[in-house]
Design brief:
Number of domains: 2
CATH class of the largest domain: Alpha Beta
Organism: Membranihabitans marinus
Protein name: Gfo/Idh/MocA family oxidoreductase
Largest sheet: 10 strands, mixed
Radius of gyration: 21 Å
CATH architecture of the largest domain: 2-Layer Sandwich
Strand content: 15-25%
Distance between the termini: 28 Å
Strand order of the largest sheet: 16-15-14-13-9-12-11-10-17-18
Biased composition (Basic and acidic residues): 340-350
Oligomer: single chain
Shape: globular
Number of helices: 11
Number of strands: 18
GO molecular function: nucleotide binding
Order of helices and strands: EEEHEHEHEHEHEHEHHEEEEEEEHHEEH
Pfam family, one: GFO_IDH_MocA_C2
Helix content: 25-40%
Length: 445
């Protein structure tokens, strides 16, 4: 859209470590059904490819810009974009220039985790709506800042937990609410993914085609290493959050959604590296327990990286326990129930599946979740969102709490109202990151 629709103030030149600050006035625009909405996708190595496909599948939506610190990757995606859509797309390495572009209406974020909050807040300040990949935040304090920014600048922010747009999963949640398996007291999240050793490649000269300063962004800057770029940053604390904060966010989100709870008051975690002598910092195996004494509910969460059994046939998903049966969600779009002591099969559902309710798979998945986001954007109605920014804060925050309990090595007491640990200065140091100059998370209250 044109600059008359979107405006903001830049403090310093983009060539340096410029900070983008809030506009004096941010208008809430409602796009007509026939009005084209322009999208920039930031981070195009992994999930960014699905973002491109998802937005290009929408009516009157155009991906106009791809942004990534890796110019070689940008050129590859530009070529494939041209071949797939017979359209040109602009390339940009600097995220700040993308946010400064008044012709861009939506920022779609598939960057590494440590960029999610800052880019979301900058985009909100610039009057743009945001689709942000999971986890929404890299730490709990960032998640709260994202919620505050979306509210202050009245922006539409959708969290990329596409199972919330699955008709089958929504039907499963309805069964839990209606007492189909009785009083639901426990949820179990499963992340059993095949994660091999990543080795240790040591430091190496920075490739000319990568702007490593921009890739690092708000994180502490270390010498370049292929241990980080492009995928294995997931397994290092300064950039990722381990698999509970990677794949696991879908499952932490569903645990909290199904139990209808927020943050817990007691957390404990145990795990470690038992398989590989590699450069990963995060635990390979992690078991976390989140207790809700007042609600009389509990969440168990388990991450396993290698050879393992399934649970109820599931390797990635959730199991809910009630006093009349269990409900099993397998992946993102199907569920089954088993009732009573004899485990009698009950209701089941699968998006587009012949054995379930015959639901339309297109209504779920990334494309469907983006369709839900686009409806909210066009109407500027946050209530339409299936995965609003508040869910990003909570589901990401649950993973962060488990990681903090692991790193401190003890049972933690947490005050959800203050979002602080009780009488535990060490644990509280993990709630907020340390940010490089020019890439600080803005205060937005």
């Amino acid at each position: 859209m044109k600059s008359s629709r979107r405006s903001f103030i830049k403090k310093t030149t983009l060539a340096g470590s410029a900070a983008i600050v809030a506009p004096t006035i941010v208008s809430a625009n409602v796009f007509g059904a026939n009005e084209r909405v322009n999208v920039a996708v930031l981070g195009i190595h992994g999930r960014g490819k699905s973002h491109i496909k998802g937005f290009m599948a929408q009516d009157n939506v155009q991906v106009t810009t791809l942004c990534d610190p890796d110019m070689n990757l940008l050129k590859e995606r530009q070529q494939s974009f041209k071949e797939t859509y017979n359209k040109d797309v602009a390339l940009e390495q600097d995220i700040r220039r993308v946010i400064a572009n008044d012709d861009i209406d939506i920022i779609s974020l598939a960057t590494p985790n440590h960029w999610h909050a800052l880019a979301t807040i900058w985009a909100c300040q610039a009057g743009k709506d945001v689709y942000v990949e999971k986890p929404g935040s890299h730490n709990i304090w960032e998640g709260r800042k994202m919620v505050e920014a979306a509210n202050k600048y009245n922006r539409i922010v959708q969290h990329g937990v596409q199972l919330r747009s699955s008709p089958a999963v929504n039907e499963a949640i309805g069964l839990l609410r209606d007492g189909y398996i009785g009083r639901v007291y426990m949820a179990r999240g499963l992340v059993f993914r095949w994660r091999p050793s990543i080795g240790d490649k040591g430091f190496s000269p920075k490739p000319d085609h990568i702007n490593y300063d921009l890739w690092t962004g708000p994180a502490p800057k270390v010498p370049f290493t292929e241990n980080l770029v492009h995928y294995n940053w997931h397994w290092h604390w300064d950039y990722g959050n381990g698999d509970v904060g990677n794949q696991g966010i879908h499952e932490t989100d569903l645990c909290m959604w199904g139990l209808d709870v927020g943050f817990p008051t007691q957390i404990t975690s145990m795990g470690g590296k038992f398989l590989w002598d590699d450069s990963k910092e995060v635990p390979e195996v992690l078991t976390s327990v989140y207790n809700y004494p007042e609600e009389n509910k509990i969440i168990q969460f388990e991450v396993r990286p290698w050879c393992t059994n399934t649970e109820e046939g599931v390797t990635v998903g959730n199991i809910f326990y009630g006093d009349k049966g269990i409900l099993v969600v397998d992946g993102y779009d199907k569920y089954k129930t088993y009732l009573g002591k004899d485990r009698k099969p009950g209701k089941s559902g699968e998006d587009g599946g012949p054995s379930g309710t015959g639901m339309d798979r297109g209504a779920g998945g990334t494309d469907g979740h983006i369709a839900n986001f686009m409806e909210a954007v066009r109407k500027q109605d946050k209530s339409i969102l299936n995965g609003p920014v508040e869910t990003a804060h909570l589901s990401s925050g649950l993973a962060h709490l488990g990681n903090i309990a692991y790193r401190t090595g003890r049972v933690l007491e947490f005050d959800p109202s203050k979002e602080r640990f009780v009488n535990d200065p060490e644990a509280n140091t993990y709630l907020k990151g340390h940010y490089r100059k020019g890439f600080e998370i803005p205060e937005v209250v």
